[in-house]
């Protein structure tokens, strides 16, 4: 709904890369505090697996609610004192969730949420102003494409792994197999996002795109051979490769939007 209000205000297609990039930035942060450092746990009761259930709660919050709020704040140019009030509102909601027993802190504190959101929303306003200009440095485009790819791949792969459970990574980093699975998959996405961002920002032709997809396919097969990736058959691997092809096409379209001057 917030994204719809933002579109009504500006009619600028750059809302799309902005929203996805904000979600990606949050995902990068969540890799550290949620997956690696085990900061908190959601308990929405949607899935039987407790860790996947928590992950879905985190995805909804950090991939939908927070980015849409940041988009609204940036597009409408909401002032800092209102940003503080909105962040306080999120803190109140978090405390309510704790009271209802659907959210629990491990080492995380509510004040961290308030500080983090205040910084994110304030930086989001600056990022929006930068994105609205047509002339961007190569480094700016590369970083934005990287973050956007983290968001797109991370969302698609997470939902596929959690709901269909046809692939599973087993690096042996954590005792909980679900956490182990998501940790490796998320790290893999962060690494291959560098290659995707370079491919699109350097305007690689179909040959380079085919080469990248082929390399990823070989990596998946190597991971299976090393018993780090387990699948229900060859079709899940083929589907992963098809996902990568779709992501490349989406990034191409987003790259054109980023470079476009809004009239």
TrEMBL record:
Q: Which keywords annotate this record?
A: Membrane, Transmembrane, Transmembrane helix
Segments crossing the lipid bilayer:
18-43, 55-75, 82-103, 109-128, 140-162, 182-199, 206-225, 237-258
Q: What is the lineage of its organism?
A: Bacteria, Bacillati, Bacillota, Bacilli, Bacillales
Question: Under which name does UniProt file this protein?
Answer: Uncharacterized protein
Q: Which domain of life is it from?
A: Bacteria
């Amino acid at each position: 709904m917030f994204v719809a209000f933002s579109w009504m205000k500006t009619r600028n297609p750059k809302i799309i890369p902005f929203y996805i990039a904000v979600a990606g930035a949050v995902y990068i942060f969540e890799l550290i505090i949620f997956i690696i450092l085990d900061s908190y746990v959601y308990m929405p009761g949607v899935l039987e697996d407790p860790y996947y259930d928590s992950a879905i709660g985190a995805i909804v919050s950090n991939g939908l609610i927070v980015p849409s709020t940041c988009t609204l704040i940036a597009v409408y140019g909401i002032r800092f004192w209102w940003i503080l009030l909105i962040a306080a509102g999120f803190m109140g909601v978090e405390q309510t969730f704790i009271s209802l027993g659907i959210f629990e802190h491990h080492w995380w504190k509510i004040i961290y949420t308030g500080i983090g959101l205040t910084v994110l929303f304030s930086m989001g306003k600056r990022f929006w102003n930068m994105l609205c200009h047509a002339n961007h440095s190569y480094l700016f485009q590369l970083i934005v494409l990287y973050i956007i790819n983290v968001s797109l791949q991370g969302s698609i792969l997470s939902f596929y792994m959690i709901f269909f459970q046809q692939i599973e990574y087993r690096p042996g980093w954590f005792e909980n197999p679900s956490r182990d699975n998501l940790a490796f998959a998320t790290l893999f996405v962060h690494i291959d996002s560098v290659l995707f961002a370079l491919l699109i920002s350097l305007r690689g032709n179909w040959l380079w795109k085919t080469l990248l997809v082929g390399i990823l396919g070989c990596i998946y097969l190597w991971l299976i051979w090393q018993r780090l990736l387990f699948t229900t058959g060859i079709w899940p691997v083929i589907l992963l490769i098809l996902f990568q092809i779709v992501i490349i096409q989406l990034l191409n379209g987003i790259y054109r939007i980023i470079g476009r001057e809004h009239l």
